[in-house]
Amino acid sequence: MAGAELIGREELAEIQELFSREKVNLYRYGGGNYKTREFEEKFAAWIGVKYAHAVSSGTAAIHCALAGAGIAPGDEVITTAWTFIAPVEAISALGAVPVPVELDETYHLDPLEVEKAITPATKAVVAIPMWASPKMDELSALCRERGLILIEDAAQALGASYKGQKLGTIGSVASFSFDAGKTLHTGEGGIIVTNDKEIYDRAAEFSDHGHMHLPGLPRGKDPRRSKGLNLRLSEVTAAIGLAQLAKIDTILSMSRENKKKIKEAIRHLDNIILRPFSDEAGSQGDTLIFRVRDREAALQFEAHLTEHGFGTKILPEALDWHYAGVWGHLLGEYDRYRGLDLEALWPKTGIMLRSSICLNIPVLMDGETIERVINAIVSGAEKIG
Ligand SMILES: Cc1ncc(COP(=O)(O)O)c(C=O)c1O
């Protein structure tokens, strides 16, 4: 749950401050307040990039990031077969072709599979860090060698890092989400970060009907060079974002500490396999992933956790929203996928996901709750045999 757990007085105070001004303006491009701009500046400084542009959701953020990077109809965009559906929807909304590939053992894009999927039409690779880092050295080198744009949809991984560098600052552009399950929560919201002025400008234009935001011009006279949508963030949401951002280091360190305690206590269990990492020290605390024998054992484990008052997160209960193998409604629009048994395209990923458990690690956990989670995992592991 992360930031959503800590919503409270500070968020309210930011909203009250917005309403206490002489002229209240809730629209990001109106005169006067500019909570959105302050949020963008503070976020860019925290993560360590030159530019940040806040938008209405994480889905909007990856949509704008792709548009900002120049993804156009017919371009092939390689991404992972395990992701929430949003980046694949965004690729498709731009008329580009999503090319999901199999996972590696860390549950991320497998650089070897990415290499195999490259064609002359490939324009970009979207890495999707799931609370930890993909093999970014290999992916960066491959993209450099093959002239591809590396994009990070780091919606799930704000605060994670790879070899000391924050995720979201490694590719050409990255996106984040502030929905209810993410590190920071603003109701709805997302942000794009980049060091590339051209990508930033184009992403910002796309989020605002193509407005170029040229200084000194009234909005109605502002020109455009490409099309866009309304994906703007409101000042109220940005005010909440400012209060949440001030809590980010606490959120990250508390959930990391909770996860560490749980992991240490279950490391010895024989019949669960904790997921390996490309950089464990940089991983987030938010979610714990482990594998069991097979699908049946995963379902049994999930039922056991539920009985003990702990739900799973994404795997196994929401697999259908996070696995390309069941997205005939979207991928079926493309000739290359139409009529195929999609599951058969990513068999390794399907087996991994169906035999995995993801457990949410809250920020606020007292010692007794941590003990209960540990006991539930230990007894679940005994039960599946
Ligand atoms: C990788 C990824 N991208 C984008 C999104 C969409 O974010 P939002 O719910 O803010 O639209 C999510 C949400 O879970 C996600 O996991």
TrEMBL record:
Phylogenetic lineage: Bacteria, Pseudomonadati, Chlorobiota, Chlorobiia, Chlorobiales
The organism's place on the tree of life at top rank: Bacteria
One Pfam match: DegT_DnrJ_EryC1
Organism per entry: Pelodictyon phaeoclathratiforme (strain DSM 5477 / BU-1)
Matches recorded under InterPro entries: DegT/StrS_aminotransferase, PyrdxlP-dep_Trfase, PyrdxlP-dep_Trfase_major, PyrdxlP-dep_Trfase_small
Keyword Transferase: yes
Entry's Gene Ontology BP terms: polysaccharide biosynthetic process
Family: Belongs to the DegT/DnrJ/EryC1 family.
Any one GO molecular-function label of the UniProt entry: transaminase activity
Protein name: DegT/DnrJ/EryC1/StrS aminotransferase
Keywords attached to this entry: Aminotransferase, Pyridoxal phosphate, Transferase
